[in-house]
Amino acid sequence: MPNYAYVIKDADGNRHEDNLRAANYEAAVETLRKRGAAQIVSVREIRGGLAVDEMTVGEQIGLAIYRFRTRVPLRSLVFFTRQLSTMFSAGLTIEKSITNLLTEERNYRFKKVLVQVSTDLKKGYSLSEALAKHPGVFSNLYVALVHAGEVSGNLHVILQQLSDYLETVSDTQRKVISALSYPVFAVIFLSAVVTFLMVVVVPMFKDVYDKFGAKLPFATRVLMGISGIIVHNAITVFLIVIAALVGLWVLTKTRRGGLIWDTIRLHFPVFGGLVMCAIMDKFARTFGILIGSGVPVLEALSHATRVVNNRVIANGLRQAGNLIRDGFAISIALRKTGTIPPIVVQLVATGEETGEINRLLEKVAEFYSKQVEATIGRLTALIEPLLIIMIGAVIGIILIAVYLPVFMLGRAVQAGA
Predict the structure, then answer these.
(1) 229: helix, strand or coil
(2) 350-358 contacts at long range (C-beta below 8 A, 24 or more positions apart)
(3) How is residue 24 annotated by DSSP?
């Protein structure tokens, strides 16, 4: 007999959630009505696929590679979700809506995925089950919200909320990419200039200095030595750098290495605050949408844990889930973890008192979204002059080290005269 998770409200408007066993969905609803439920918010079957155990390093690497191979532009996903919501609201079936969108889709990868989704729908799969087969395109949050919409009968509303959420994520990504475009260009330019100096210019001066046989300053000898290593072992140096980067990436996939890396991200000067704001924005928006859609608190918290993409915060949210399961209120559980900012805890507590926790979480998301925008603006204004100074300093140090013997020779000639 399957197990069902339900969310109901009593005659006083208080929210209750728990699990029950029933022969089918209709039997579960009938049981809740007999128990005196004034309003049935949601009833959904608990499936084994909804709980994801901690993945091994190999599974994480495999999933990352799969997502890279099957990724589609976020704007395509936003357009698809928005159009699907509009067509479904207009009275078209999900199967017909996806067929219409399939004919207009220009992205080859996404079109291929939609063909498979359409085929699964014709076989009798639900939309959430069909989407869950493509984790590289549709995230856990996406599938969970669609499933909640199917169960509650508000799929068009959920799709509208989901498209708004994806548009917000897309706008944030675009702002971050715009802010990072200049620093990335500056770093690439600096790398190209330094490579040219070390591979072409420095060896030319080395040949000249070798002919004189004079003793070179320490800084010049170090620079010449580094240049020689790069020129004569270019392939080896390149492979070592690539291996080091890959090794660090794999290390971040381990439990301890990932925890250390995520801790550094949260406490890194200036950028740590930006990372925390972005995480809280995503957590509050995700948790709020799921709660507002009738998803049980523990399941909503589990899905929100998967989207924060930070092991420190995720561990705190899992601890909060255990406390909620033991009977603690959501705000108290979040406060006891010590990883959630006080403003989030306070607004969640207010939401619990007023019964509008999803609306308060939306306010939290808006607050942190504005914080992200403001921080990006300040960083953009600060990074540009700092990068100019850094480029000038690096190139200046190399040139001074190269010309230092010439300067010393000039002073010697002046002293002899």
Answers:
(1) helix
(2) 355/13, 355/14, 355/15, 357/288, 357/291, 357/330, 358/288, 358/289, 358/291, 358/292
(3) S
Nearest-angstrom CA–CA distance, 266 and 334: 18
Which DSSP category does 6 fall into?
E
Can you read off the two tokens belonging to residue 133?
């087969």
Note whether 260 and 203 are same-domain residues.
yes
Same domain as 179, residue 104 = no
Q: Is residue 51 part of a domain?
A: no
What is residue 329's DSSP assignment? -
Domains held by the chain: number: 3
SS (H, E, C) 43-64: EEECCHHHCCCCCCHHHHHHHH
Same domain flag for 174 and 254 = yes
Is this structure's pTM higher than 0.70?
Answer: no
CATH code at 233? 1.20.81.30
For residue 227 the two structure tokens come to 């240049």
Interacting residues of 69 by C-beta distance below 8 A, sequence separation 6+: 136
**Residue-by-residue pLDDT tens, the chain, 417 positions:** 556 767 777 777 777 766 677 777 777 788 888 888 877 776 766 554 333 335 667 767 776 777 777 778 888 888 888 888 888 888 888 888 888 888 888 888 888 888 989 888 888 888 888 888 887 788 877 887 787 778 767 788 888 888 888 888 787 777 777 777 778 888 888 888 888 888 888 888 888 888 777 678 888 888 888 888 888 887 887 899 899 988 988 888 888 888 898 899 888 887 788 889 888 988 888 888 888 877 788 888 887 887 788 889 989 999 999 999 888 999 999 999 889 999 999 999 998 888 888 889 989 988 988 888 888 778 777 877 888 888 889 888 888 888 888 777 655 445 443
